[in-house]
Write a structure and sequence with these properties.
The protein has eleven helices and 13 strands. By secondary structure, it is an alpha/beta fold.
Length: 304
C-alpha cells in the first residue's frame, strides 16, 4: 500500500512558542488517520503544515510523494480541506458556495447530490450568515469534498453537530473512504476516533507521544479492567495494591477505583469476600480509549 502522507521531523514556532517539535508520522493510502491531543498540543498546526497552509521551520512533508511547499498547485488538486477556523461571505448562499468551489475543480461531484448528502437541501438558497453552527460545519465538510480529493483533512468535523447529525457524518465519511479517499481527522471526540480511525497519533505539548490503532492504545494504555467500589472506612488500600494484576489504586469521594488486568478482578473479588466486604457496590468495566488517552497525556506532562 502506498503512502498518502509522510511527515518527518516537523517543527514550527510562533516567536518563542514551539507549536510542534520533531513531529513525524505516515498515513497509508485509504487510511483514516486521527490526530488527537489537548487544546494547544499542535494538532491544527501539524495539519496546516501538511497542507502547505503554513510553512514549517524545519522538517519534511510529502503528499503522494510530492513536496506541497514546492509544488503547491499540484498538491492542492489532490487535497480537500475543512479547517477548524473557516468562514465565507455573509451573503453567499449554500448553493452558490458549492457551485463556486465546484467551478474550480476539474472533476467535481454532483452539486445537488452533495448538498443533499450533507443535509443542506432545505438551506440551498439560504445565506451563509443565516446558518446555524452545525449547518455551517456541514457546509464546510461538503466544500472539502466537492473536488473528489484523494487526501482529505477534517479538523473538528463534528463540533456543533447534534448526536444524530454526528452519526450521519460518520457514515458519510466512511463512504468517502470507501470511494478511495485517504482522511486525516483532527478531533477531540474519543468515540469518533474509535468509530472511524484505523490509527491515531496522540500529541502533547507539540510532540507525538504515541501512534497506534485505537484498540492497541486501549490494550497497552487503557488500564485493562477498571473496578469501582464504595470504600469501607477500614479497607486497606495498600492490600489492594499488592494484589496480582493490579496496576493502580485511587480513592476519591468514598469510591475506590482499581485498574489492572482481568486477573486483578478475580483476585480483588476473592480478597473482598475473605475480609467480609460483601456489599461494596462493586462495578467492573473495561478500560476505554479515553482512559488510554488521559494516561498518555498525564505521563507526557509529568515528563516535560
Amino acid at each position: 500500500m502506498s503512502t498518502a502522507l509522510l511527515v518527518e521531523g516537523l517543527r514550527k514556532c510562533y516567536g518563542a512558542v514551539v507549536a510542534v517539535d520533531d513531529v513525524g508520522f505516515d498515513v497509508a493510502e485509504g487510511e483514516i488517520f486521527g490526530l488527537i491531543g489537548p487544546n494547544g498540543s499542535g494538532k491544527t498546526t501539524t495539519a496546516e503544515c501538511a497542507q502547505a497552509l503554513r510553512r514549517p521551520d524545519s522538517g519534511r512533508v510529502r503528499v503522494f510523494g510530492v513536496d506541497p511547499h514546492e509544488q503547491r498547485g499540484a498538491v492542492r488538486r489532490l487535497i480537500g480541506s475543512q479547517l477548524q477556523e473557516s468562514t465565507l461571505p455573509d451573503r453567499i448562499t449554500v448553493g452558490e458556495a458549492v457551485h463556486l468551489f465546484a467551478s474550480l475543480a476539474p472533476d467535481p461531484v454532483d452539486e445537488p447530490g452533495l448538498i443533499a448528502e450533507w443535509g443542506l437541501s432545505a438551506k440551498r438558497g439560504a445565506a451563509f450568515s443565516s446558518l446555524s453552527g452545525g449547518q455551517r460545519q456541514r457546509l464546510f465538510v461538503a466544500l472539502a469534498l466537492v473536488s473528489r480529493p484523494r487526501l482529505v483533512f477534517l479538523d473538528e468535523m463534528t463540533t456543533g453537530l447534534d448526536p444524530a447529525a454526528r452519526r450521519e457524518a460518520w457514515r458519510l465519511i466512511e463512504r468517502v473512504r470507501a470511494d478511495g479517499a485517504t482522511i486525516v481527522l483532527v478531533t477531540h471526540f474519543m468515540d469518533e476516533v474509535e468509530r472511524l480511525c484505523d490509527r491515531v497519533a496522540v500529541l502533547v505539548n507539540g510532540r507525538i507521544v504515541e501512534v497506534d490503532t485505537p484498540a492497541g492504545l486501549i490494550e497497552r494504555r487503557g488500564g485493562g479492567s477498571v473496578v469501582r467500589l464504595s470504600a469501607p472506612a477500614a479497607l486497606d488500600t495498600g492490600g489492594l495494591r499488592a494484589l496480582p494484576g493490579v496496576a493502580d489504586v485511587t480513592c476519591h469521594d468514598g469510591v475506590i477505583e482499581v485498574r489492572g488486568s482481568a486477573r486483578s478482578v478475580t483476585a480483588l473479588g476473592h480478597w473482598l469476600v475473605v475480609r467480609g466486604y460483601g456489599d461494596t457496590g462493586l462495578r467492573v468495566s473495561q478500560g476505554s480509549l479515553e482512559d488510554a488517552y488521559l494516561s498518555l497525556v498525564a505521563a507526557a506532562r509529568e515528563e516535560s
